[in-house]
């Protein structure tokens, strides 16, 4: 990837339209609460199934092939998210509903994902699991793309680290909620899917009632051209090098993180020999979640105060890699506990500050949803890459030690490439 060292500044449109203007007024606590709750619901819908229910369903269908089934289902869903996130982000950019650009997609996406989760709960074959998990990803990514884009729409730059920290807290609470569902249903994955669907639907209501989502006048839209629309998803890393490096570092860090957690249920069951692997996932997720929430709400506002993002991102990326090494060299229950804590410390700071950094390298205000959707490919693509790498590591290249060491190396590369971003300190 060839990238110039001279960043191109974001294009600021000459318009007074509230939907496109750079925000200057701080958002209210009510708005932020709605944002946090949407993140809780979406991530419960994602990670309850990924961490527990898909694995349990795979065991019920074909236990000897459980790893292959989990990898297939999650990889296919992630492949859908690669397209869905930027597509729905771009569609929300062009939405002229009187309810705003983002909120209609939050509602429609949540309804679709919840319906697909209910259908998945009664799926008795791998093919149906793949189909309905892809629909879950389609709907949840529509909602996620819209709520993600709402932050640069409404939040001024000096407040973005703090809001990013709270959004990261919401994401983590969602992961923890999914783990709680996994533990309380005692292996009944059908009920688990129902709980995830209900949590998603309830979570979006506070935001929808108080979203403060300015409508985009139709006069601001140019004539739609399918070819130009499609070409817009390519953002030149030569013309926008900071955007390119931010995308690459996010990809690498998320691959490292996803490799660490993708087979956590099976790691506890087959290597650590935990008596109740689903409960073990809950314990580890709880430790991870507490550390994420602590570091996210500290690091985000701290980066706002000092006006710097890169040192936080570099340090947190290296910490994530350290967690993978702990899991590699101490594959016992205390090692898993320590790894979860260190992973939470690193990922909490990373989620908060990297999000703020990303919003500062977007090329155009009019394309925030689409551009953040392209960025989110770097979060979704690891869900395709990591299961494949994990499966290869377990079956052909030495097992979990190789898996976790690979995760650490990839994550460290992400930390190194952050220094290439020039337009943000």
Structure write-up:
This is Major facilitator superfamily MFS_1. Keywords: Membrane, Transmembrane, Transmembrane helix. One of its GO terms (cellular component) is plasma membrane. The protein has 425 residues and is mostly helical. It has a single domain (29-216, 232-420), classed as Growth Hormone, Chain: A. 73% of the residues lie in helices and 0% in strands. The chain has 15 helices and no strands. The chain has helices spanning 29-62, 66-93, 103-120, 126-154, 160-184, 189-209, 226-231, 241-261, 264-270, 277-306, 310-329, 333-359, 368-380, 382-396, 400-417. α11 runs antiparallel to α15. The longest helix is centred in the N-terminal third of the chain and has 34 residues, at 29-62. Mean pLDDT is 86; it is low at 1-16.
Q: Short summary of the structure?
A:
This protein is mainly alpha-helical. It has a single domain, classed as Growth Hormone, Chain: A (Up-down Bundle).
Protein topology:
Elements: H1 29-62, H2 66-93, H3 103-120, H4 126-154, H5 160-184, H6 189-209, H7 226-231, H8 241-261, H9 264-270, H10 277-306, H11 310-329, H12 333-359, H13 368-380, H14 382-396, H15 400-417
Content of β-strand:
under 5%
Radius of gyration: 20 Å
How do the SSEs run, as a string of H and E?
A: HHHHHHHHHHHHHHH
Tell me the span between the first and last alpha carbons: 22 Å
Number of domains: 1
CATH architecture: Up-down Bundle
Q: Strand tally, please?
A: 0
Low-confidence stretches: 1-16
Largest sheet at a glance? none
Shape: globular
Oligomer: single chain
Write down the CATH topology: Growth Hormone, Chain: A
- Determine and state the CATH class: Mainly Alpha
Mean pLDDT comes to 86
Fourth-level CATH superfamily: MFS general substrate transporter like domains
Sheet/helix structural class: mainly alpha
Helix content: over 70%
Number of helices: 15
Main location: membrane
Protein name: Major facilitator superfamily MFS_1
Transmembrane segments: 35-56, 68-91, 103-124, 130-151, 163-185, 191-209, 247-266, 278-300, 312-330, 336-362, 374-394, 400-419
GO molecular function, one term: transmembrane transporter activity
């Amino acid at each position: 990837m060839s990238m110039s060292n001279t960043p191109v500044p974001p294009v600021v449109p000459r318009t007074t339209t509230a939907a496109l203007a750079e925000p200057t007024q701080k958002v209210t606590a009510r708005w932020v609460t709605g944002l946090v709750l949407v993140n809780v619901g979406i991530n419960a819908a994602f990670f309850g199934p990924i961490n527990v229910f898909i694995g349990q369903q795979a065991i019920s269908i074909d236990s000897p092939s459980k790893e292959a089934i989990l990898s297939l289902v999650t990889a296919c869903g992630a492949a859908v998210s690669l397209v869905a996130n930027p597509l729905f982000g771009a569609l929300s950019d062009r939405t002229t509903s009187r309810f705003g650009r983002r909120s209609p997609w939050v509602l429609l996406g949540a309804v679709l994902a919840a319906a697909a989760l209910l259908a998945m709960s009664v799926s008795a074959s791998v093919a149906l699991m793949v189909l309905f998990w892809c629909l879950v990803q389609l709907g949840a990514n529509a909602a996620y793309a819209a709520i993600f884009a709402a932050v640069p729409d409404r939040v001024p730059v000096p407040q973005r680290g703090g809001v990013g920290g709270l959004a990261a807290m919401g994401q983590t609470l969602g992961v923890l909620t999914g783990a709680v569902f996994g533990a309380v249903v005692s292996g009944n994955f059908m009920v688990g899917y129902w709980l995830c669907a209900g949590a998603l639907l309830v979570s979006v209501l506070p935001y929808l009632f108080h979203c403060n989502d300015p409508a985009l006048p139709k006069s601001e839209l140019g004539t739609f051209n399918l070819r130009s629309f499609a070409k817009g998803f390519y953002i030149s890393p030569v013309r926008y090098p900071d955007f390119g490096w931010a995308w690459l570092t996010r990809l690498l860090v998320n691959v490292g993180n996803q490799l660490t957690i993708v087979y956590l249920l099976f790691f506890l069951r087959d290597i650590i020999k935990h008596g109740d692997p689903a409960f073990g996932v809950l314990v580890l997720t709880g430790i991870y979640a507490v550390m994420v929430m602590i570091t996210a709400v500290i690091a985000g506002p701290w980066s706002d105060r000092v006006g710097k993002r890169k040192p936080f991102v570099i340090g947190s990326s290296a910490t994530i890699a350290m967690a993978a090494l702990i899991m590699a060299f101490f594959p016992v229950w205390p090692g898993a506990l320590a790894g979860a804590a260190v992973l939470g410390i690193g990922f909490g700071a990373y989620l908060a500050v990297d999000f703020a950094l990303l919003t500062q390298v977007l090329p155009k205000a009019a394309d925030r949803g689409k551009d953040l959707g392209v960025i989110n490919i770097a979060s979704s693509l690891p869900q395709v890459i990591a299961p494949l790498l994990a499966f290869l590591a377990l079956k052909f290249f030495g097992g979990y030690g190789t898996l976790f060491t690979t995760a650490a190396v990839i994550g460290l590369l992400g930390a190194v490439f952050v220094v290439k971003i020039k337009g943000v300190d």
